[in-house]
Design goal:
- The structure holds two protein chains of two kinds.
- Chain A is mainly α.
- Chain A has helices spanning 8-24, 31-38, 42-48, 52-65, 79-92, 94-104, 117-127, 133-146, 149-159, 163-179.
- In chain A, α5 (79-92) runs antiparallel to α10 (163-179).
- The radius of gyration of chain B is 19 Å and the shape is elongated.
- The chains are: A mainly alpha, B mainly alpha.
- Chain B: Pfam families: TetR_N.
- Chain B: This is Helix-turn-helix domain containing protein.
- Chain B: Keywords: DNA-binding.
């Protein structure tokens, strides 16, 4: 997952905003309040993030890269485990999870709805290089979709699942996606 | 367009018109009030926050623009979802509103979506003896792969059109239904 370089000031702004979102229970927090929490001038916030959408995109990316960071998977077949952990992390910070989920669905450039895509592609290509283009795309799309906060939001909201059930169902679905390719790994070269 | 019957609906109809030229974030209550010909205060009374407006707008769009074709069997379900994805492609600005509204923290006591109930009913008929946990895991996966979020992610993150998105959806449905025990497997075939 790529994290854009942040200045110390930017990091202070994003951390202050994330903190306030959790306290207030909404992303509707004024620049003035964010600036006061970060201990800087309001115009500094505006200079770094001219619009609210800029601020939300940066905050969501920062939250994904820090608070919701995944342990790195070294195999595509470990992804269900990473998904299980991620769901538990989302469940512990529900307000932030909703902000990240909504931001990914804005349909604007920079919203990065599949930040983990490149990593999944690298793993899949290394282990199961024999897939045709449509199969490969379908596996990556399904796993990207499951490995996202949208899963947590949907399973919770539509089925009233709790943390344990969400983590279980999301990992189960990812295992299902992998079933087709489980036995198609390219043999290890003999060294 | 249908005749708006009340103020709340008139506001949503006008918001939908404005969505054709700008993003939801760029529709101010001021502009919306001018478009409807009412005061800004009236809009606030109906929709105290933008999250309320987004949720109401999404469900209105869903009903008027993306009605879910009824389905009982899995093949009807697949066809219904394909039709929706194609409708989303034809009206992307509206479909993004749906994807986004389904991601926000619920503003009211949200009922499960119509499609959630329809998927559960489909499974009840098709696999009546399936245990509750597996039934719910299957229902949740099917719902999530048929969602506006799936469409939006594949369109924005993968640059796919409705045809490719339908293909990815079908393959995902196949993998989920392949988890069913063999007694239920017959109805799962496309």
């Amino acid at each position: 997952m790529t994290v854009p370089e942040l200045s110390g000031t930017q990091e202070a702004i994003l951390a202050a905003y994330a903190e306030l979102i959790e306290e207030v229970g909404s992303d509707d927090v004024s620049y003035r309040v964010i600036a006061r929490r970060a201990g800087i001038a309001e115009r500094t916030v505006f200079r770094n993030y001219p619009t609210r959408v800029d601020l939300l995109l940066a905050t969501a990316a920062w939250i994904e890269a820090t608070l919701f960071a995944r342990e790195e998977s070294h195999s595509i077949f470990d992804i269900p485990l990473a998904i299980r952990d991620a769901m538990q992390r989302y469940d512990a910070r529900p307000e932030l999870a909703h902000v990240v989920a909504e931001t990914a669905m804005r349909g604007v450039s920079g919203a990065a709805p599949s930040p983990g895509r490149a990593h999944l592609e690298r793993l899949l290509d290394a282990e199961v290089p024999s897939l045709d283009a449509a199969q490969r795309r379908a596996v990556i799309a399904a796993l990207s979709h499951l490995d996202s906060v949208g899963t947590w939001v949907t399973f919770r909201r539509e089925f009233g699942m709790d943390r344990r059930d969400i983590a279980d169902a999301a990992a189960w679905a990812a295992e299902a996606v992998l079933d087709d390719i489980r036995d198609r790994v390219s043999p290890r070269p003999i060294t | 367009m249908e005749e708006p019957v009340d103020t709340a609906t008139a506001i949503l109809a006008s918001a939908a018109v404005l969505l054709r030229e700008r993003m939801f974030d760029d529709i101010s209550y001021r502009a919306l009030a001018d478009e409807v010909g009412i005061s800004e205060r009236t809009i606030y009374r109906q929709y105290p926050t933008r999250a309320h407006l987004l949720a109401a707008l999404s469900s209105w769009i869903e009903q008027t623009r993306f009605p879910l074709p009824p389905f009982v069997t899995v093949s009807d379900f697949r066809a219904a979802v394909h039709e929706r994805f194609r409708a989303f492609d034809a009206l992307p600005a509206y479909a993004y509103v749906g994807a986004r509204a389904s991601a926000i923290s619920p503003t009211l006591d949200t009922e499960p979506a119509h499609i959630t109930r329809a998927i559960e009913a489909m499974l009840d008929v098709a696999a009546p003896t399936l245990n509750r946990r597996d039934r719910r895991r299957i229902a949740a996966s099917l719902l999530y792969f048929s969602s506006a979020m799936f469409w939006a992610r594949l369109r924005t993150g993968f640059d796919l059109d409705a045809g490719d998105i339908c293909d990815a959806f079908d393959r995902a449905v196949d993998t989920v239904l392949a988890k069913l025990p063999s007694a239920s497997a017959k109805w799962a075939e496309p």
